[in-house]
UniProtKB/TrEMBL annotation:
<dbReference type="GO" id="GO:0006788">
    <property type="term" value="P:heme oxidation"/>
</dbReference>
<feature type="binding site">
    <location>
        <position position="177"/>
    </location>
    <ligand>
        <name>heme b</name>
    </ligand>
</feature>
<dbReference type="GO" id="GO:0020037">
    <property type="term" value="F:heme binding"/>
</dbReference>
<dbReference type="GO" id="GO:0004392">
    <property type="term" value="F:heme oxygenase (decyclizing) activity"/>
</dbReference>
<feature type="binding site">
    <location>
        <position position="16"/>
    </location>
    <ligand>
        <name>heme b</name>
    </ligand>
</feature>
<keyword id="KW-0479">Metal-binding</keyword>
<dbReference type="InterPro" id="IPR002051">
    <property type="entry name" value="Haem_Oase"/>
</dbReference>
<dbReference type="GO" id="GO:0046872">
    <property type="term" value="F:metal ion binding"/>
</dbReference>
<feature type="binding site" description="axial binding residue">
    <location>
        <position position="23"/>
    </location>
    <ligand>
        <name>heme b</name>
    </ligand>
</feature>
<keyword id="KW-0349">Heme</keyword>
<protein>
    <submittedName>
        <fullName>Heme oxygenase</fullName>
    </submittedName>
</protein>
<dbReference type="GO" id="GO:0042167">
    <property type="term" value="P:heme catabolic process"/>
</dbReference>
<feature type="binding site">
    <location>
        <position position="130"/>
    </location>
    <ligand>
        <name>heme b</name>
    </ligand>
</feature>
<dbReference type="InterPro" id="IPR016084">
    <property type="entry name" value="Haem_Oase-like_multi-hlx"/>
</dbReference>
<keyword id="KW-0408">Iron</keyword>
<dbReference type="Pfam" id="PF01126">
    <property type="entry name" value="Heme_oxygenase"/>
</dbReference>
<dbReference type="GO" id="GO:0006979">
    <property type="term" value="P:response to oxidative stress"/>
</dbReference>
Length: 216
């Protein structure tokens, strides 16, 4: 009797299941729950946007390097780039001189340093890109709606959550997961990716904790 070989687990499944607890912990931070409940103000959202600029600048520097990787190039999509939209949001939220007004929090400096240190390697880049971009296309859309509902924000200041080249999020997310699964990571690389994705959520949670202290 021939036993059919067992297919290795998909990277997208490993990342989803392996980060479930960290994901829930990050989402339940007081800053996030208060912001989405309408208990803060636009200044609190502006603080979040300022921190995102530092994070995505580091991530997209890594994207430029990974794009040349024989395997990783398939995971880099120009339509996901967020830095230009964040900068337009910051100009709206802070004014033309926003660069002199915003500062990265210590937790975000650590986050960006981690990205610069690790995200030039494919497993680690996949982990960080997965946590950020799929989050933007999923929970990020909830944030956008809540900012509009509770704080009266219009399109200006929320361009970060707009993906004009991705008219439907679900088909794109399906393609992205297929690209993750097609990277051909071996078991050791996949384990590194899951560990780094957990780390990414932990860094995100630390950022929310500091933002909560700034906006009690």
């Amino acid at each position: 009797m021939t036993v059919a070989p067992v297919a290795p687990p998909l990277l997208s499944d490993l990342l989803r299941e392996g980060t479930r607890a960290e994901h829930q912990e990050a989402e339940s931070q007081g800053f996030v729950t208060r912001l989405l409940a309408g208990e803060l103000d636009v200044r609190a959202y502006a603080s979040l946007a300022a921190q995102q600029h530092t994070i995505y600048a580091a991530l997209e520097e890594a994207s430029a390097r990974i794009a040349a990787d024989a395997r990783g190039g398939s995971l880099v999509f120009a339509e996901l780039a967020r830095v230009p939209s964040i900068e337009r949001d910051l100009e709206h939220l802070y004014g033309p001189g926003w660069r002199s007004q915003v500062r990265a929090l210590p937790s975000v400096e650590r986050y960006a340093a981690r990205l610069r240190e690790t995200a030039t390697r494919l497993p680690e880049y996949a982990a960080h890109a997965y946590t950020r971009y799929l989050g933007d296309l999923s929970g990020g859309q909830v944030i956008k709606r809540m900012m509009q509902r509770h704080y009266g924000m219009g399109a200006a200041g929320l361009e970060f959550y707009d993906f004009p080249q991705i008219p439907k999020a679900k088909p794109f997310k399906d393609v992205y997961r297929e690209r993750l699964d097609g990277l051909g990571l071996d078991s050791a690389e996949a384990a590194r990716a899951v560990a780094e994705a957990r780390r990414a959520f932990q860094l995100n949670r630390a950022m929310f904790a500091e933002l909560g202290a700034l906006h009690p």
